[in-house]
Amino acid sequence: MRRRTQFGTPIGSFQAVKHRLADARIALEFARPLVFGAALTMAPADVAAAKVTACEAAYATARTALQLHGAIGYTAEYELSLWLTKARALRTAWGSPQACRAEVLDAGRLSGDRRW
Predict the structure, then answer these.
(1) Residue 85 domain-assigned?
(2) In sequence order, what are the residues at sequence separation of 6 or more whose Cβ sits closer than 8 angstroms to the Cβ of residue 11?
(3) What pLDDT digit, counting tens, does each position of 19-28 carry?
(4) Is 20 contained in some domain?
(5) How many CB atoms lie within 10 A of CB 54?
(6) Where would I find the Acyl-CoA dehydrogenase/oxidase C-terminal domain in this sequence (predicted)?
(7) Rounded CA gap, 66 and 84, in Å?
(8) CA 52 to chain centroid
(9) Looking at residue 70, which CATH number applies to its domain?
(10) CA 28 to CA 89: how far, in whole Å?
(11) Please, which residues bridge with residue 103 across strands?
């Protein structure tokens, strides 16, 4: 974001770009404790929640990065297109997002947890 310029200014200095990058960072940081918690408990619902949250955050972040880099993000100089391909594949690996969400909801219903 420091090298690409628009109107003679690096695009990383524009507020709209900063907001998109901040949203991506927040999504990734939100997923981190879920992944660590799932690794500790290994409960199927925790794993499913961590998987869907982390995969969706990674996919959205990769898409945002490609959009902000523009066409150069698809070139061999940058690995962004590779990261998008990996994130897209991980979304459906080991259960679709819908199946993971269903697992989390079913676990909440079976435990009698009324927070849902």
Answers:
(1) yes
(2) 1, 4, 5, 17, 68
(3) 999 999 999 9
(4) yes
(5) 20
(6) 1-99
(7) 8
(8) 9
(9) 1.20.140.10
(10) 17
(11) none
pLDDT at 38: 96
**Encoded amino acid at 74, one letter:** Y
Which amino acid is residue 111, in one-letter code?
Answer: S
Look up the domain containing 68 and give its range. Answer: 5-111
Would you state the structure tokens that stand for residue 34, as one six-digit string?
């879920």
In a domain, 116, yes or no: no
How many structural domains are present in the chain?
1
pLDDT tens readout for residues 56-72: 999 999 999 999 888 88
Joined tokens for residue 102: 């269903």
Instruction: Look up residue 87 and give its two tokens.
Output: 């994130």
Determine the angle formed by the axes of helices 44-69 and 97-111, rounding to 10 degrees: 150
**Chain length of the chain:** 116
* Token pair listed for 92: 């459906």
